[in-house]
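User: I want to check something. If I give you two sequences, will you return the structure for each one separately, not as a complex?

Assistant: Yes, each is folded on its own. Here is the first sequence with its structure:
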Amino acid sequence: MDTNLIATPSPAAKRQRSGGFLASIRRDIDSVLERDPAARSRLEVFLVYSGLHAVWIHRCTHWLWMHRVRFLARWLAQVARSLTGVEIHPGALINPGLFIDHGMGVVIGETSEIGADVTLYHGVTLGGTSLERGKRHPTLGERVVVGAGAKVLGAITIGADSRIGANAVVVRSVPPNSVVVGVPGQIVKRSQPHRLGDAPDLNHTSLPDVVGVTLKQLLERVDSLETRLNGHAARVTHIHTPAGEVWEGEDFSI
């Protein structure tokens, strides 16, 4: 694992980690209030947020797992899955401030490691890609946001302050302050880095179409070269080009 991909924990994060179970609960509730405009009060968050309940039950199952009471840990994790729709293996390491929004369909594998103040939306999978024992699930740095339906697979590292776009499939490590889009995930460096203390970056539907833009520019370049070669524009265009952001043509009729 490349340790340079993970940001150094802030003093506040270190205090939260050392403050015990109750401090973690307070931090988890604060994370919801900071990142979900639908959250109206601490009481509401405490009672009705299933993603939060899944994290709290996981803290209990993880303690059991680390103390080798593993059958009970797995059984409680299964109960939590039935109650919340979130499946977290007891072996996963989760730091304070994780917010699982809506939660339904989230899967977090055994050797996953999640840094402080991470946000996961519904349908996210932190999955493994190997039959070998040992590290086989992802490591997420601090303040990472993983969009709805995204899959992060294998023993890879997602650097701090990165954002994974909705429905992306990430199969290789990502440096800090990146945006990942597409299948397989394409890494785009942020033009304006996200820093500690900035408001959470939850815009996981902002998906630059790196392949589409490149193809469009390539098609425009081919048309330009053909025009220069022939001295005039070709009468028949065999290559479709989008009008603005809309692709047209009989081949695409539905």
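And separately, the second sequence with its own structure:
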Amino acid sequence: MRVAVVIPCFRAGERVLKVIERVGRDVEWIFLVDDACPEKTGELVVARCTDPRVRVIFHAENQGVGGAMVTGYAAALETDADIVVKIDADGQMAPELIPALCRPIVKGISDYSKGNRFHMSGSVDSMPALRLFGNVVLSFMTKLSSGYWQLFDPTNGFTAIHARVLGELNLSKLSKRYFFESDMLFRLNGLRAVVTEMPMKAVYDDEPSSLRPLQVVWPFMKGNLRNFLKRIVRRYFIADFSMASIELVLSIPLLLFGMIYGGYHWIENHGSAHAASAGVVMTAALPIILGMQLLLSWLNYDVTGQPVHALHLQLGELEES
């Protein structure tokens, strides 16, 4: 399969030249998107890079990593590339791993492949503790909103996607800032695309990162909550309606009734010499127990209901027919 690479650039400078040098000859196109970089990385590459595969695209205004990737993806779709890889310009991702990253797609196992920094014990020893904590929190929220519960590092930006699947996405709707990676997974789940991960080492040098995990937790929470609600409505009430849908519908009012009823009577009897009657306790406890059982049953269905058939193979069969 023919491979194109997209490199979004903001405050990259000369580091991106080393990244380009390390991209193997199995890659046929390299799209570097200068996202209004204050260090003028794009101009630096034009002046000093002689690699004929490189094409530099300039943004007049900063659009964020998501905006840069949308521009790069659109350019890659105009080529004959079968796979489009995203790699950062700071050198924290090894370009030598691009063939391994693409392998599940080449074999027809997956549609979207991501790096996983948490696969091997000790692989994140070099990651700053604050950043590690932020990644863990953001990763769990992304699992919830995207539905890809099997992913261990969903916010990892080292990715590869089959061009057929990329062409099915509405690129204009993708988040333009740091929420891009999470939003990408949410929209891939809407297509029922298969996502896999590739083990990789976490590399953190002394270079400053423009991402501050604690600063983006709240925006990520809002974005993930919005996507979670959209996914639930679309998956369980529009695209399909199953026993899991009924379990979810029943569990929420049962839990709310039990907690509100029980809370009201607990406040009413607090400090009183009279304990709540057995009937009051059971009326509060039974809906909570039943609602929790239904919710756990739905969650089990959601966790195990991962896509298993590569979408790009199905799209290829449709093209041939």
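Because they were folded independently, the notes below concern the second chain alone. The chain has two domains: 3-128+148-207, 241-320. The beta strands are 3-9, 27-34, 54-58, 83-86, 112-116, 159-162, 195-199.
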